[in-house]
Amino acid sequence: MGFIEMTINFSVESRSSDSPARTGTLELENGMFETPIFMPVGTRATVKSLSPEELKKCGTGILLANTYHLYLRPGADVVAEAGGLHEFMNWSRPILTDSGGFQVFSLSDMNEVTEDGVQFQSHLDGSKHFITPEKSVEIQKKLGADIIMAFDECVSYPADREYVEKSLNRTLRWAERSLKAAEDLQDHQHIFGIVQGGTYPDLRKKSARRTRKLDFPGYAIGGLSVGEENKLMYQMLDVTVPELPSKKPRYLMGVGTPRDLIEGVKRGVDMFDCVLPTRLARHGSLYTSRGRINITNAAFKKDFNPPDKDCSCYVCRNYSSAYLRHLIKRNELYGLRLASYHNLYFFLDLMRKLRYNIRRDTLDDFVESFYSGWAEE
Amino acid sequence: MGFIEMTINFSVESRSSDSPARTGTLELENGMFETPIFMPVGTRATVKSLSPEELKKCGTGILLANTYHLYLRPGADVVAEAGGLHEFMNWSRPILTDSGGFQVFSLSDMNEVTEDGVQFQSHLDGSKHFITPEKSVEIQKKLGADIIMAFDECVSYPADREYVEKSLNRTLRWAERSLKAAEDLQDHQHIFGIVQGGTYPDLRKKSARRTRKLDFPGYAIGGLSVGEENKLMYQMLDVTVPELPSKKPRYLMGVGTPRDLIEGVKRGVDMFDCVLPTRLARHGSLYTSRGRINITNAAFKKDFNPPDKDCSCYVCRNYSSAYLRHLIKRNELYGLRLASYHNLYFFLDLMRKLRYNIRRDTLDDFVESFYSGWAEE
């Protein structure tokens, strides 16, 4: 493949008059979706407890799967022989895979970073692996996602400036190598570059400018929501987003809470992913229009109302807080499933509302009304 | 309520010419179903991992919930205030609750049996409880199932004759007390009596005859599949079933494997329940037309066929053995769910086929063909 296929079919359709917020459409070979969008996380080729039909009912336009986990189990070859991730997991709409970098740095043991790549030990069985940008792209090619990510180093927080700068320079060289390796992708695949730079505004800008020069079809902002304060993350978005091309999709990796999504959208982000809604659900923490509640609280023992009276999801239409409390306190699988469904619905519904209000140019009003009476953190 | 409401709307519709096997229809206020039927077990007001819609798609006509578990958590009052089990768990079709007797004897600590009832300690928190026949009926009235069970003692196996006889006599007195307490049931509720007698043919006969005299709307055969050999269980059915009224439903409690279902049906049993399909599913053990397989075996790593090519369930139509193996090896919730669905479908489909072949009077041929190539035990 050559230059032309490095483009992506993304169009910006409306812009907020008070902020860089915007709506758009990303059209991929396996389907199109409107942005800003939230991508549910299907770590091991499954969004925990939920069926493809349910994910679609929630409004999932694209989901994310983790290269690191799938590379270890069941292995990229198994997925490739199954016909790729879509076939393997029975998901027909678009999929995005991360590069594996984040997990290599956060989950595995004894990783060693060299110019060539990263050596690490599997968190499952201690086996040794060496991942390079080329290897990451090759694995992602086998997995067959619609959007794949360049291999990067995700620096933990806090990190000193010298290390962050050294790391981002290496990540830039890895981005170039990833892009070169991606010349050989499957026809339906596209690769995004990743901006790093820790919490240093000038390094973020530098990383964004130099990554942009490589002319990826889309850009991710990585290394945020790794422990820094929310304000710092929003500041980094403020300096990074303006450096990215306005006509290409922007993806804030691993973020976040409803507040983070709103603040990201206001700063011009188009795509998000996070395990938060499903992970919290499994601990009985449910998002509602009045904030986050813990359904296992004694207060819900005889509460026969739905968890959120303002929610029209399957769970809130059919079940009471008392029933959910009963199930989740006993760790019943169906309770984990209902809570996961509800939280994903909440996140995807929030994105729908954000898109609607950007189009009507009423984003500020909507956000103000959303935050009123909201008690999450 | 008086005598007339102790009847039940059950009609036998066809009989096998070679065996006591029969089909029928049981019509309850919350729905009707054909017999012989298998009841999925929803221990804590949930059939583990599955939705009501999925249970219906599998062909579930009635499900079972456990009085002991629900009495302890969330408590019968919570369920009653929710509007009963149907409302609480969003299940509109019929429900059967057991009496709690089996769990009191098998799960709880330090139970002491007296003429009045059973004292036991909760397996959850050690709290002390005393259950009598009257209390069991009262709890079941609150839970609001369509069919409730008389309180009985389920004797473990092996048990000496003297104890079994003493116990069955007490169970008969408890049956009388249960029946009296049941005069006050909700309009849609019916109570079944339970035959005990261990593995002693004459005691089984005695228990059946004397329970029958009490004129319950239906009869269960309890205390089987508790450790005895299959043959012994089948012998007990051979002597017990003929003692029960031919016009009333017969329910074999807590049974069993596909083979047990077939052998029970051949002996004139109309209803079954068992945790086996869902429990085994969660360990990766799947029923197929060629027998039971363990999907986590290495042989399935790259097997991209469905678990059972002859099965037309949702799982077999959409997923490969390789994917199920991947999910279940990682204990993924969606894997437990798919396996549970598949196994329940298998059991309910087997019952459909048994009914079909009884009606056509081709039961023996069907059973022979089912067993050929079947490798379960």
Automatic annotation (TrEMBL), chains A, B:
GO terms for biological process: tRNA queuosine(34) biosynthetic process. One of its GO terms (molecular function) is tRNA-guanosine(34) queuine transglycosylase activity. Coiled coil: none annotated. Substrate binds at D98, S99, G100, G101, F102, D152, Q196, G223. The active site is at D98 (proton acceptor), D273 (nucleophile). Belongs to the queuine tRNA-ribosyltransferase family. Catalyzes the base-exchange of a guanine (G) residue with the queuine precursor 7-aminomethyl-7-deazaguanine (PreQ1) at position 34 (anticodon wobble position) in tRNAs with GU(N) anticodons (tRNA-Asp, -Asn, -His and -Tyr). Catalysis occurs through a double-displacement mechanism. The nucleophile active site attacks the C1' of nucleotide 34 to detach the guanine base from the RNA, forming a covalent enzyme-RNA intermediate. The proton acceptor active site deprotonates the incoming PreQ1, allowing a nucleophilic attack on the C1' of the ribose to form the product. This is Queuine tRNA-ribosyltransferase. The gene is tgt.
